[in-house]
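--- STAGE predict ---
source: upstream dedup step, 1 unique chain passed
mode: sequence only
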Amino acid sequence: MGIKESLEAASNVYVKENLLMVAINGSIVNNGWKLLEESYSSSDFFSLFSKKDSPLKRMSIKASALGNMLKVNFIGERASRSSMEDIIESNIYEISKTMNVNMYVTDDIELQNEILIHNTVCLVIRELEDKLA
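--- STAGE serialize ---
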């Protein structure tokens, strides 16, 4: 593989990761969450969401590219209840998922396995809400 092909392959990886993050964010928004903020750099991603009827005050996603894998941290934050409960219990809970980018985005930069993305996101949100309810 020449330099040109290597550069194209490297840039394709970031395009794939961006598309996967857009799909993850889309699944969250389709679950009734409002996207408040998002930031995409070459290999790091951040998104912040809120939902009125959720036990979570807000939820954020921090993701990093690791080769052809995307490490996605879903972070739920419960609204403060009382200072004593805040001391005893954490108001933050985090779930990490590592996703193989090639499983969700083809070499032609087409999204695939969208139902799996959606189901994974729904399960993570449910687990965050159950843990922090």
